[in-house]
Design a protein that fits this description.
The structure is a single chain. The chain has 3 helices and 11 strands. By secondary structure, it is an alpha+beta fold. It has one domain (about 1-155).
Length: about 160
């Protein structure tokens, strides 16, 4: 199951929506089935170089996909724009690991995952976006971003 988030600004018209988490078809064996009619991982990462590197790690280093893969929200540290990207980490036998790195299409700077505030209710552990630390740099520059709604999303 995933969540959807909307980030909005109280001081200007900035608004952007994202999905986070995973759907049911995102099982590791589906992510690594490159022979499928529509392979899943290339549609999630969109970097042929990264997908080829992942294929090589799986084939040559017995890499395994870590459990934390999911759609996440990233932010450019230079221009401040938010982006939705697929996070995946592979661990391999010699103790190494690999994470896909994304770059801002505007600035060409490495995107950073945003920070969340974790909270625990009686039913489940959840997370909320920590927006107070981020200025609305894509537009007005003020510290007035807020989470404009969250909903749980059932995929596939």
């Amino acid at each position: 199951m995933g969540s959807s988030y909307a980030i909005s600004c109280k001081s200007c018209d900035y608004k952007k929506s994202f999905i986070t988490g995973i759907g049911m078809m995102y099982a590791p064996h589906n992510l690594t089935d490159f022979e499928a009619d529509n392979p899943l991982l290339p549609s999630l990462i969109r970097s042929e170089r990264s997908v080829d590197f992942i294929k090589a790690l799986l084939a040559n280093k017995d890499a395994v996909i870590a459990d934390s893969y999911s759609h996440e929200i990233y932010r450019c540290p230079k221009c401040g724009e938010f982006y939705g990207r697929f996070f995946i980490q592979l661990d391999y036998y010699d103790g190494g690991s690999f994470e896909v790195e994304y770059k801002c299409p505007k600035c060409k700077v490495a995107l950073k995952p945003i920070e969340y505030d974790a909270f625990d209710d009686d039913v489940c552990e959840d997370k909320r976006i920590s927006l107070e630390k981020y200025p609305c740099r894509p537009k007005c520059g003020k510290h007035s971003l807020f989470e404009g709604g969250e909903a749980y999303v059932l995929w596939n």
